[in-house]
Amino acid sequence: MAQRYVRVKSQEGKIYYGLLQPSFNVEVLDAPPWLDGQPSDFILEPDKYQILAPCSPSKIVAVGKNYADHAAEMGSSVPAEPLIFFKPPTSVIASEREIKYPPQSQRVDYEGELALVIGDRTCDCTPEEAQTKIWGYTIANDVTARDLQKKDAQWTRAKGFDTFCPLGPWIVRELNPGARLQTFLNDDPHPVQSACIDQMVFSPDFLVSYISQVMTLLPGDVVLTGTPFGVGSLNVGDRVRVEIEGIGRLENSVITR
User: Does an H or E element contain 249, and which?
Assistant: First the structure.
């Protein structure tokens, strides 16, 4: 099993980064792992912590229409260059936390995605350099108020509601380029989304390079790499699960805001 890097809150309210053990004990690190955090002698037992989103990014840069079949289902072609937008850090929630359905929207969709965690200050880098800047990988759900996305000229409102970026549950350092991403709703065993991440139009290395030529990415920042075909609506009471082979599962319920 790959090492799983987590961010947790203790019963005393202190936040730590750590390594999740098979026993679900957390071996606490003395700093964020991308800042060369080292294991300490401090161990948190499973009933002594709450798991948080695995990082606290200064920004979340997301990529639209990065799978050809998803672009087609949205009624458009693949863009000639990456289509990027922001989600605010306040939209981040952990696995097992609730997505809040905003009263402004009548159509909220799930979008399962691979997320990249940046480990070093990144500015004007090449795709080759970008690989060394990607510290690890986690899972995201780019929750979207689809009706507001279609109504507005830009996507900030549709993508930016509080709780609209479930992230986690942990970070792994390495990932098979052909790993499968799947999204499930409620107890249905058949995925509503299923694709291999190597079906992306623009690869993770290319995306990080491209974004770094627009803005500086900082350690702990997150890049969402796009969602495959099969996006669909969420309703209050639903439970949505995004799985990526080699990482795990990100699971959240939907409640009224």
Answer: strand 248-256
Nearest CA among 110, 169, 118 for reference residue 144: 110
The tens digit of pLDDT for each residue in 151-210 reads 998 899 999 999 999 999 999 999 999 999 999 999 899 999 999 999 999 999 999 999
**The amino acid at 96:** E
Radius of gyration from C-alpha coordinates of the chain: 17
Phi, psi values for residue 178, rounded to 5°? -100, 15
DSSP label at 217?
B
Q: How much is the pTM?
A: 0.96
The secondary structure element, H or E, covering residue 129 is helix 127-133
| Tens digits of residue pLDDT in 17-52 | 999 999 999 999 999 999 999 999 999 999 999 999
Q: For the beta carbon of residue 197, count every other beta carbon within 10 angstroms.
A: 24
CB atoms within 10 A of CB 152: 12
Strand partners, 167: 140
Sign of CA dihedral 221, 55, 116, 42: positive
